[in-house]
Structure formats: C-alpha cells, structure tokens
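QA checklist item 7 of 12: single-chain prediction sanity check.
[x] sequence parsed
[x] length recorded as 255
[x] structure emitted
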Amino acid sequence: MLSFEGFTLLILLFILAPIIGAITLLFLFVFEKRIDLLENKTKKMELEKELQQSLYNQLNQQIQPHFLFNSLNVILTLARLERTEELVRALEVFSQFLKFKYKTTEPVIPLREEIRYTEYYIEIQKLRFGTRLTVTLTCAEELQAAYIPPFVLQTIVENAFKHGLERKVGAVNLDIRFSLEQETATLLVFDNGTMEQEESAMEGKSGHGLDNIRRRLHLYFTDRASLQIQSIPETGTKVQVKWPFIIEPNLKEVT
C-alpha cells in the first residue's frame, strides 16, 4: 500500500511528465530548426564559393584568347615583313607559350611562373621592335615564391605595348619591378609610350584586360589587393598592383 508521500510523488509525476515531455519536444523542435538553419547556411556558403570559383575560372579563360590574338598578330607582322629568322624564333617561343598555357589551371600560380610566361610574350615583342626595345625586370628571389593570379603581369605588359609603346617613335622602354614590404607584394610596370586616351578609355579598349585583373584580384584577395594606373604627361604610363604575400595558398577555393 502506498504511503501518503509516495502517492503525492506519483501524482506529481503524472502531472509533471506531460509538461516535461512538452518542454523536451519544444527543445528538440528548436534544436532541429537550428540544425536546419546551419545546414542551409552552409549550403548557401558552398554555393557562393562554387559561384565565385566558376566566375574566377571564367575570368581566367577570358584573358587567354586576348594574349593569343596579340601574339599571332605579331607573328603575322613578321611574316608580312619577310623577317624569316625572327619569324621562326617567334614561332618557337609561341609554341613554348602554348605548352605553358595548358598547364596553367590553378587560380593562383607562383610568381616565377608568371614571370616566365610573360617573358615569352616579351621575347616575341623584342623580335618585332629589335634594338629599339629595352626591357628591365627586377624581382628578388624570395618574392618569386609569392602566389599571384595567372596572367596579371602578362596582361599589364600587353596593355603597355598595345596602348603606349606601339605608338612610340624611337626608343621604347619597359621597366618591371617587384618589391615586398610588410607582407604586401607590389608590382610596378612603367612604359615610356604615348597614351593618347585617358585611363577609362584605355581600359575599355583593353577588353577583359585591366578590369579583369581587378575582378580576379578582388575575388581571391577581396579588398586586400588593388590595381592603379597613372598616365604621366610626356613621360609614360605607370601601373601599380598590390596583393598579400602568400606562399601556401588554398588552391581549392576562392575566398
């Protein structure tokens, strides 16, 4: 036979059990909703990253045909001028460029590879301009390990020729300098060409050029990277690029 205290506890148990069950169900419901919310947020972030990666890859692919067109145009010019020796060398360099091009599939590459890639284009231009062209490139060994989106230097060099040096009469100079300060890499490209158009017009004529660089730098480095262009009257044009110095990038995602 139950005692009075036991009977009281039993009554309390019958009363409290539904309340405790309801609270437990409510907690589980809220917890489940929270889990769903986190899962949806994670999926959204993954989709955004995939979209960013897709856009980044698309921008990389857009820049390459521009280089191909300009290189072939130089080779065609040499052929029309019947400069056979220079033409053969240009074709050799161009084949090296194509070999490198199809190996470049990552969102960022070591700076040393970007420099070597650009040197193919510069060598073709040297064949075209001859002794008129002087190119200076300065980059410390430790900085060559830095990672950079592909075709950044090459595109800026292309713009220097297309919008400045090709219109220059007499000696043409191209000065390329890399430097490192407080974990920030800096690229300066100066040419003594004649740029008749202002910056906006120049970028518009460059197609996917400088604007493409800005967008790719922003996609990978956000606001930590920048590109500036300055036309110096009667002197030439200067382009400056800054980006974070990294030597172990996460190549699987664009942040």
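[x] summary fact logged: Helices lie at 4-80, 84-101, 111-129, 152-163, 199-205, 210-221.
[ ] second reviewer sign-off
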